[in-house]
Design a protein that fits this description.
With about 180 residues, this protein is an alpha+beta fold. It folds into three domains: about 1-45, no CATH class; about 50-105; about 130-180, no CATH class. It is about 45% helix and about 15% strand. It has helices spanning about 20-25, 30-35, 45-60, 60-85, 90-105, 170-180, and strands at about 10, 15, 130-140, 145-150, 155-165. It has a three-stranded antiparallel sheet, covered by helices on one side. A two-stranded antiparallel ribbon has the order 1-2. The two termini are about 45 Å apart. It holds the Pfam family RVT_3. Keywords: Membrane, Transmembrane, Transmembrane helix. This is RNase H type-1 domain-containing protein.
Length: about 180
């Protein structure tokens, strides 16, 4: 099997996949995945994609991880400026990037905001239940664990569970899985 560039698999005039070529080149499973990828209706310049490819070729994985987080933070800031009319300083954006990367890599322990002592569980309002969940991440093993506790207004445990997850690649994913399991 020869290597193809993506643009060789697209009929540029019709803006459709070259079905026969793809069917004869890839496994049935891969063919299904390829055909599920939507194509742009109008032709466009690929400069940005090629520029990103060049950037990644210049960096180490650690550097392009930082680059992607920075790019994402700046993009998000731009959206907040447009849609929420909220402007962040460059220092705030830099702090967000540093804190986000530290959280994802587990370099920094969470700091308690309660300085007066241990914070205790608080009851939900009447006729409600409260769902507490948390995720833990082990980057050296790519494992995570999620824990869930559901209580009523008296604090009685209605349900509790925990689960180990394999192949998890970030602290963010571990927390997202815990949230997903809770709902």
């Amino acid at each position: 099997m020869r290597d193809f560039k993506v643009n060789e698999l697209i009929d540029s005039n019709e803006r459709t996949w070259k079905r026969e070529l793809i069917n004869n080149t890839f496994s049935e499973e891969d063919v299904g995945k390829i055909f599920r990828i939507p194509l742009a209706r109008a032709s466009h310049d690929d400069f940005f994609v090629w520029w990103l490819t060049w950037v990644f070729d210049q960096f180490t994985p650690c550097h392009y991880y930082l680059f992607c987080c920075a790019f994402w933070a700046i993009w998000g800031d731009q959206n907040r400026r447009i849609h929420e009319k909220r402007i962040s300083t460059s220092k705030e954006i830099a702090n967000f990037i540093n804190n986000y990367i530290a959280e994802l890599n587990g370099f920094e322990k969470r700091k308690s905001v309660n300085t007066t002592g241990t914070r205790s569980w608080s009851h939900p309002p009447y006729e409600f239940i409260k769902i507490n969940f948390d995720g833990a991440y082990d980057g050296s093993q790519n494992h995570s664990a999620s824990g869930i506790v559901v209580r009523n207004v008296e604090g009685k445990v209605l349900l509790s569970c925990s689960e180990i997850h394999q192949g998890i690649t970030s602290a963010f994913a571990a927390e997202a899985i815990a949230c997903w399991k809770a709902v």
